[in-house]
């Protein structure tokens, strides 16, 4: 669908101003529009897929007028814009991080995002995003990179990702596979044990500490590291299965309070 004169003026204006995001009210004065005209223009351009609605009243706009069809911004660009609008702290996690660090060769069809503002699934342009709202003190230990379009993207660090694979096993479906990832990490980088323990204490819960302690001990990590986990654990007679959902057959470890029902140890 060809642009009318007003659409052309809109793109000329945003290029002149070097805007990447337009909010309701931004172009009323610059283009001498009424609020209704502005709203109708933005809605029409979004329907034509020349701009992308990030949230109500907020649109991501291209650097230049799309040539020959719809504009499809990168999913990271849309995510970054939305998180900026909500002033959120965030990091990509789960399957996105598993793939990034070579733990899994599966390419996820959505973005998984730990953050402190939003929860639930959203579709923004071509991006499908699952927002996982967590407490501020569970955000952190991340690394960033900049995409070719200039968007800054945050990922959980490699070791944080391993800890989350044990902590958030139910959401990500990562047990018992996570234990093999940890074993491979320790085989390649034995010094990682100290960081695994630190982040388990920082971001884990009692169940995570029990499972991780048993896992590290079975991989012959030195006792001074595993004891840091052990001393945080309360006494209990209840057992935590190493692999929830698997048959409860295996050895009982009262020290860690776990039932070791892993098939491979």
Low-confidence spans: pLDDT under 50, at least 5 residues?
Answer: none
Count up the helices: 10
What is the share of helical residues?
25-40%
Ends distance: 61 Å
Number of domains: 3
Q: Specify Rg, calculated over alpha carbons.
A: 24 Å
Q: Kindly report the average pLDDT value.
A: 94
H/E series: HEHEEHEHEEEEEHHHHHHEEE
Q: What would you call the shape?
A: elongated
What's the multimeric state?
Answer: single chain
Strand content: 15-25%
Strand element count: 12
Strand order of the largest sheet: 4-5-7-6
Would you write up a description of this structure?
With 265 residues, the protein is an alpha+beta fold. It folds into three domains: 5-72, Arc Repressor Mutant, subunit A (Orthogonal Bundle), CATH 1.10.10.10; 87-156, no CATH class; 161-265. It has ten helices and twelve strands. The strands form four sheets. The protein has a four-stranded mixed sheet. Helix 8 (192-203) runs antiparallel to helix 9. It is elongated and about 75 Å long. The N and C termini lie far apart (61 Å). The model has no long low-confidence stretch (mean pLDDT 94).
């Amino acid at each position: 669908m060809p642009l009318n004169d007003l659409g052309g003026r809109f793109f000329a204006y945003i290029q002149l101003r070097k805007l990447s995001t337009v909010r309701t009210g931004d172009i009323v004065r610059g283009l001498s529009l009424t609020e209704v005209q502005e709203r109708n223009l933005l809605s029409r351009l979004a329907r034509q897929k020349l701009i992308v609605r990030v949230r109500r009243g907020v649109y991501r706009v291209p650097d230049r007028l799309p040539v020959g069809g719809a504009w499809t911004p990168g999913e990271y660009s849309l995510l970054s814009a939305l998180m900026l609008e909500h002033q959120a702290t965030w990091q990509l996690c789960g399957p996105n991080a598993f793939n990034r660090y070579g733990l899994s060769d599966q390419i996820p069809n959505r973005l998984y995002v730990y953050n402190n503002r939003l929860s639930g699934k959203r579709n923004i342009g071509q991006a499908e995003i699952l927002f996982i709202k967590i407490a501020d003190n569970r955000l952190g230990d991340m690394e960033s990179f900049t995409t070719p379009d200039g968007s800054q993207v945050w990922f959980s660090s490699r070791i944080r990702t391993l800890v989350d694979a044990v902590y958030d096993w139910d959401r990500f479906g990562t047990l018992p596979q996570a234990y093999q990832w940890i074993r491979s990490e320790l085989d390649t980088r034995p010094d990682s044990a100290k960081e695994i323990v630190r982040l388990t204490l920082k971001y884990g819960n009692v169940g995570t500490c029990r499972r991780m302690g048993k896992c590290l001990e079975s991989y012959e990590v030195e006792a001074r590291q595993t004891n840091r986990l052990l001393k945080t654990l309360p006494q209990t007679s209840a057992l935590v299965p190493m692999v929830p959902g698997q048959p409860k057959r295996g050895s009982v470890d009262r020290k860690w309070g776990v039932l070791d029902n892993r098939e491979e140890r």
